[in-house]
Write a structure and sequence with these properties.
304 residues, 19% strand, 38% helix, three-stranded antiparallel sheet, homodimer, seven-stranded parallel sheet, 14 strands, 12 helices, alpha/beta, Rossmann fold
Chain lengths: 304, 304
């Protein structure tokens, strides 16, 4: 059994590779819920949805979120009626949000709802939210304190970041199965998601960090930084604004003693000399399905 | 100023005719809210929506509910995910329900939300819900007590009706503007909607019935029955199950002293002899826009 910790698109690429490389059912993904929010009365879990769509083969091939074969009638109509259209919700995507919102309103937990959706989408991989209780990323910026989606989508990450908070995390407990999966895993893989906004909320749940510290199995992280640049998203900008070098080394040092193995691009290996974790140079850029599978196999070979 | 009391499609046809026949802003429609319900977490007001779409020229030309140029991606996806698809919600229609649900959740009243939606849709006619507080039609049937949409849509009116209740009506107050509009109107028109499920919930709000009784202006009803048959919907079946003759006369007697004028098909006029209201024979079947306008003009001429 392998456990992967993942955010959205970056992590989902490796998660898909791992799901394909492993026997069905041998992968458990612990998903970031720090991006979750309520919008238009709908309970939206962007990273869980990206994982669901990716593992079901329904993900949009290019845009990094949402579904392929999507239509936009509801959003077009909402805009025409003067409603908020800065967070794009496709018609097919809406169906999933409606079902989840309804199930949560009926008292089901996010982990139960996520398991139901995964089953209905025919996904063999277990997808667990880091926590059932709300954990919400909030950012201190030069434009004030902003909820995550206000910063990330509405303002397109343009505010200058000063600090991050994960509201609710300290009091949250890992969702059922999370610490059990980590304790039983032969390895834990930290996917190449943003270390701050994607992994931060997961690691801020006290029981999860403790389970990672306690396991005898190797904890392996894949760098989201290649040659001083983020593959996608605002990771580089955020690191710079937090006063960190934009480098694979800074990511490895951010994870510190939590990880045993750090997989980085061969070009970044020289700069990593002396970090606590074992360095594994490997091609980590995932452009297509073959890249995802190859990196997943390399990760699995590394952890033995 | 004319006030029209209306349910969904049957009433909306005449309401559209009146809106076209009158100067802009001279019509106030009081809409049935007994069909309203919460479905998939969404606050849905079917008769208000039919009126909004009809008066905005967005109504579906044939099906009697919903929008023209509709798409069904969300509903198809919901069905594929095993969600409830017995109440058909189009993608464009969903946008309106999302906006209303959100606005109600923020504490706005149904009348305020309805006014906002009408304004955004460019509608000059005032559309008022009968009441802001929930009034819910519940039916006693041979299959037990059923909420309205469960009876009407899910079970397609197949249960045998024994009695109707309008939960919340006795304690509800007319929405702001309703009794004022009735008191100021030069005539009140009861549209050819179902007298029981469409007009029943409106008339069950105590202040509305009192305002109709108090006004010196004529109250005119248009028959929803032509030659012993309902133009559309379950009116005939319901009347038979309630032990009433399926006739224009039974409708007129149902309204009783509430109405001053009863407009019925010329073929039904002989059977109406002796009712309390003044009988006005007129072609009342509205197949197209010209029919709607002609009937509206006839109604307006009649009330003077």
């Amino acid at each position: 059994m392998i456990v992967a910790l993942s955010g959205g698109i970056g992590g989902a690429k490796l998660a898909l590779g791992l799901a394909c490389a492993l026997p069905a059912g041998d992968l458990t993904i612990v998903a970031n819920t720090g991006d979750d929010f309520t919008h238009l009365g709908l309970a939206i879990s962007p990273d869980i949805d990206t994982l669901l769509y990716t593992l079901a083969g329904l993900d949009h091939p290019d845009q990094g979120w949402g579904r392929r074969d999507e239509t936009w009638s509801a959003m077009d109509t909402l805009a025409a009626l003067g409603g908020p259209d800065w967070f794009r919700l496709g018609d097919r995507d809406l169906a999933l949000h409606l079902l989840r919102t309804q199930a949560l309103a009926e008292g089901r937990t996010l982990s139960r709802v996520t398991a139901d959706l995964a089953r209905r989408l025919g996904i063999a991989t277990t997808i667990l939210p880091a926590a059932d209780a709300p954990v919400r990323t909030v950012l201190d910026t030069d434009q004030g304190r902003l909820p995550f989606q206000e910063y990330f989508v509405h303002r397109r990450c343009s505010p200058v970041l000063r600090a991050l908070h994960f509201e609710g995390a300290a009091a949250a407990r890992p969702a059922p199965g999370v610490t059990e999966a980590i304790a039983a895993a032969r390895a834990v893989v930290i996917c190449p998601s943003n270390p701050f906004i994607s992994l931060g909320p997961i690691l801020a749940v006290p029981g999860i960090r403790a389970a990672l510290a306690a396991t005898a199995a190797p904890v392996l992280a894949v760098s989201p930084i290649i040659g001083g640049q983020a593959v996608k998203g605002p990771t580089a900008k955020m690191m710079a604004e937090l006063g960190l070098p934009v480098s694979a080394r800074a990511v490895a040092e951010h994870y510190g003693a939590l990880i045993d193995i750090f997989v980085a691009d061969p070009a970044d290996a020289p700069d990593l000399a002396g970090i606590a974790a074992r360095i594994v140079p490997a091609p980590i850029l995932m452009r297509d399905r073959a890249d995802k599978l190859a990196l997943a196999r390399r990760v699995l070979e590394t952890v033995g």
